[in-house]
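Notes from the 1:1 (GR / supervisor)

We went over the backlog. Supervisor wanted to see one worked example end to end before approving the batch request, so GR pasted a single chain during the call. The sequence is below; no edits were made to it. Supervisor asked that the structure be written out right there so they could see what the output format looks like.
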Amino acid sequence: NQISGDRLDHVHEHIQMLQVTASHYSRAHSPHRRYLSSEMITRNLFDEYVHWLENKYPGEPAVLQSFYDKIFTTNYNIVKRKPKTDTCDFCTSLEREIEIKVDFIK
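Structure output shown during the call:
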């Protein structure tokens, strides 16, 4: 049940291509943690991996989703959600103020 080196390398290659960001305010607590960009959160990463693999390495069989998920969770400190706190209180209040004004203009 061993995965060949190339197939394992392709899983790592795909995960390393993901657009991730560091949290601005959580860096001190978790400096190596990365977060998926907002548009990536809603996508199914495994399906995207399979599609990417078919285009980049035609004929190469994909690993099982459970294996992909295991590599993702055990080898990478990437969280599949937005940071809980990524803005300061001032920025949050400013964003609310802008939303209110935009709604008023509509």
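Supervisor's comment: The two ends are 59 Å apart (CA to CA).
Batch request approved.
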